[in-house]
Amino acid sequence: YATVIEPFRIKTVEPLYTYTRKQRKDFLRDADYNLFKLSSENVTLDFLTDSGTGAMSANQWGAMMIGDESYAGSPSFVRFEQAVKHLFPFKHVLPTHQGRAAEKVLFSALGGKGRVVPNNTHFDTTRAHVEASGAEALDLIVTFESTSQKHPFKGNMDVDALRSLLEGPRGKDVPCVMLTVTNNSAGGQPVSLENMKLVSELAHAHGKPLIMDACRFAENAFFIQRREPGQRDRSIEDIVRDMASLCDGMTMSAKKDGLANIGGWLAINDDKLAASCREQLILTEGYTTYGGLAGRDLDAIAVGLQEVVQEPYLEYRIRTIDYFGKALIARGIPCVEPLGGHAIYLDASRMLPSMPRKQLPGHSVACALYVEGGIRACEIGTLMFGGAAKNELVRMAIPRRMYTQSHVDYAIEVCERVAALARRGSLPGYKIVEQPPSLRHFSAKLRPF
Ligand code: F0G
Description:
- By secondary structure, this protein is α/β, with parallel strands linked by helices.
- It contains 17 helices and 14 strands.
- A 5-stranded mixed sheet has the order 2-8-7-6-5, sandwiched between helices. Strands 9-12-11 form a 3-stranded antiparallel sheet. The protein has a two-stranded parallel sheet with strand order 1-10.
- Helix 7 links the parallel strand 5 and strand 6.
- InterPro entries: ArAA_b-elim_lyase/Thr_aldolase (IPR001597), Beta-eliminating_lyase (IPR011166), PyrdxlP-dep_Trfase (IPR015424), PyrdxlP-dep_Trfase_major (IPR015421), PyrdxlP-dep_Trfase_small (IPR015422).
């Protein structure tokens, strides 16, 4: 059948609230026109992030009941470690409270002044930890002419740029090479196995470890299975193990493809590096068998890792994004293409071509999605990055296993109305009236023009 059904049925439900347009306008004004400051109870569809927001399965909730809360030597850790090593056979697995904690621990050992860390694209927290250590974070993504140019693996690293870096005068300053799969900051685009192989060979030829930021590893493996020649008959698990075998370690946020509400880990092969990271882990996260998590969280992740590599789940997951995005494109609404794994990225500069960037077109579209339909999305543009913003995008990230097709159908209608208002020139620009010195998008106060 052509219909891909949600591969689950629903046992526990939470209410979704809807409000009038007038009420939402008031909520937005009271939140200083900053969507991060809205109460989630006043949001109908929350597409702010796919991180930690998904629904856990009955098996995960069941596993939480057998979580062992011992400070040291908990069997929950053993189950967690086995589940991680089943997919990622790295020698040392260090649990952390989320992905950014794994990054902090890793770069406390590998970072430092004068060093430079290449990545296809650093996620914000990865960049922040590299830079906080004193090192430089370098994005070496393959460049494309436009956000709509098609390519099956638009998240790939620019191998020639990496070669120039490693062979050049700064090559000696590179402590490791990183690859982010899928490439979140570049539109949730996947990285091919072929690209990973080339990056791995190049890094190893220069004696550098390759570390994977594996947050959305299962979505990436699904794209490899469906798009890369010769991969269609292979299982997701095999592809994931191939990805791991090309790397020397990984950082992970279990809030994405761990299917858990919290958690993460750092895994590495090198004994010396692992010993140094363990010391830092104990200082800032917790003892090595819990790393800032409850035993029950470790059990939830152990089960989540078995569920996330199931093909019916991934097929439903990727099809949801595809169904949503294709409907928008068919209605002439500009999106980053090809569609990625975890989110739809609206291209606000094409929706509002005559609005100056300093009037925050992405934020204008994001606010309109909320006012018109109670949808909370996230601007990724000038509000978030200031003058360094490459594009004016609005990310609608889809939580895992949480919304059904009719939720998506409703979201499509809301986007259509917002696009019509944008075409008519009826969406206001915004100005920032108060902002903190860094990470301004989280707390800035804004006003419409
Ligand atoms: N790396 C990537 C690629 C991410 O997308 C994130 C989080 C992290 C690392 C950090 O993980 O949140 O567990 O500390 N991304 C979320 C998002 C916040 O909305 O895209 P964390």
